[in-house]
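G., the chain you wanted modeled:
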Amino acid sequence: MREASQVTEKKFVDFSFKSDDGLGSLYRFPKEIRNIIYGFVVPLVTASTHDDNPAIDDDLVRALMAFPLLKTSKQLCVEFLEVFIRSIELEEVTQLVYSCQARHSLEVLLAYVGRRIHVMLLKQLGCKIETDYFDVWFCTVELEVDLVFLLPRQIKRLWMLHEKYSVTSDKLYIEMTYFEPAELIASLACTSRTIRSSTLIHLFCTTYWLHKFDIITAKISLSNRSASTQAMNDMVSSAGAQIDEYRVSKMRDLQRNCTPAESILLESMLNDEVAPFWDQRCVPRLVRLHATVIDTATEVWVAMEEQYNVHHLFDLAESWLDLD
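Predicted structure as tokens:
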């Protein structure tokens, strides 16, 4: 039997800067194997964010900048960052109501990471512009003014990142997000002609008609107009399917509070008022606005590419003259 004094305590694995080579117990593996290990860790880290949202959190960026780098293993940080930054999609969220406010989360984060590794081969890089669907319906002119002001600025920022970090055009995007039309549909339903002129007055309350819609969203590829148009069509189809599901679920839910005669009125209202309102009035406005964004984004990007090509040709010509 071994004496108590001879029992060896299990060694604690230290991944901090105190470890001799800064790699902790991973020093036993070649870098290729360490990269595989990091690859398993990346999904765990990204999945821990709220709602699996890839968007950059300004508070997290500030906290990252304030964290004392020397308290962690430099080598471990560098190797993991290298795998992490090239495995995820970086996206910055911009609210239209703050369109005059400069936000540079993408630049700050990439500049910080760039101090440790050579940033390249990013998976995707984009800006998400969020707006409420109510604005599409009630504030279309103001919304277009905001977009005309904001879009070129965001695209120029993406162009600078495209040049600085060699992110190819096909990996750059603008994502337009139109928050769910629940309140718009609910306000239409509870104030419809059928409700006002029938015995369904007990349903004259917005809360009866609220429904959880998925957020309506579509990516705009800066270098591929046809892909952007297809994404818009898919967005409209998805929204239409949600409206159909809304009609079925609301019919099922509200029939419990209706007589058979009232159920017929309810079905008529959902089919003859709610659905046409969405198909004939809401969708055209949404498509018109989104198509404008596609055209503006594509035209600005193409103009910048053409300007770059012209400058590049002049640079080549000057280099040839210097050789002569």
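Residues 1-19, 47-51 have pLDDT under 50 and may be disordered.

Shout if anything looks off.
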